[in-house]
Amino acid sequence: MSDLYIAPDNQPRCKWVGVTEEFIAYHDAEWGFPVVDDIRLFEKLCLESFQSGLSWRTILAKRENFRAAFAGFDFNQVAQFDESDKQRLLQDAGIVRHKGKIEAVLNNAKMAQKLVEEFGSLAAYFWRFEVDTSESGAPQTRSTCAESVALSKELKKRGWKFVGPTTVFAFMQAMGLINDHAEGCVSRSIVADARSRFTSPVKG
């Protein structure tokens, strides 16, 4: 039970949820469920890059501000951002004003467009790196995996920035490319069921 947090409803959840009750809704409704929406995939990878060196609590609290600042993370719009947009973002107290990370989002939006041109969607590309949970070992015992290392390497080759293997692994955990809910967590079986009914966008 050391890997679990007993929430106010007396249901066991992943231990990290115990940091703040604000995490419960995110954990129960979002974390680990398979996602194919390109905007959500792009948003999450961007937010994970902003989290680097910070806590997810900080980023989650600012998520709506990030969405407002970055055009809802519509990468086709973000790809058109210019120097004036970058300066606006650097002055926006509602987000994390890290120049390198802001520049990475603007850069990665253009890279996302290229992936869509090549694969048809971001989902079709990212889901090539799905992790077989039955072979992935004990959940929440690592910060990277072979698939996150491979995806990170490929993204960097394609010109993406702030996409190290740890950042990419956190993205994969959240977007359902692996079911990393702790054993005994109330959401683990729910996510497993969602993944079993999920139709992968990978073609061929």
Our estimate of the beta-strand percent is: under 5%
Shape: globular
- Residues in helices, as a percent range: 40-55%
Q: What's the SSE pattern?
A: EEHHHHHHHHHHH
**SS-derived structural category:** mainly alpha
Please give the radius of gyration in angstroms. 17 Å
DSSP strand tally: 2
Sheet having the most strands: 2 strands, antiparallel
* Cα-to-Cα separation, first versus last residue: 42 Å
Order of strands in the sheet with most strands = 1-2
User: Unreliable stretches, pLDDT < 50, 5 or more residues?
Assistant: none
Number of helices: 11
In CATH terms, what is the fold-level topology?
Endonuclease III, domain 1
Could you report the average pLDDT, rounded to the nearest whole number? 94
Count of the domains = 1
Q: Supply the CATH superfamily name.
A: Hypothetical protein, domain 2
CATH class: Mainly Alpha
CATH architecture term: Orthogonal Bundle
Task: Give a topology summary.
Layout: E1 4-6, E2 12-14, H1 22-29, H2 38-51, H3 56-61, H4 63-69, H5 75-78, H6 83-90, H7 99-119, H8 122-126, H9 146-157, H10 165-174, H11 188-196
Antiparallel strand pairs: 1-2
Helix pairs in contact: 2-7, 2-10, 9-10
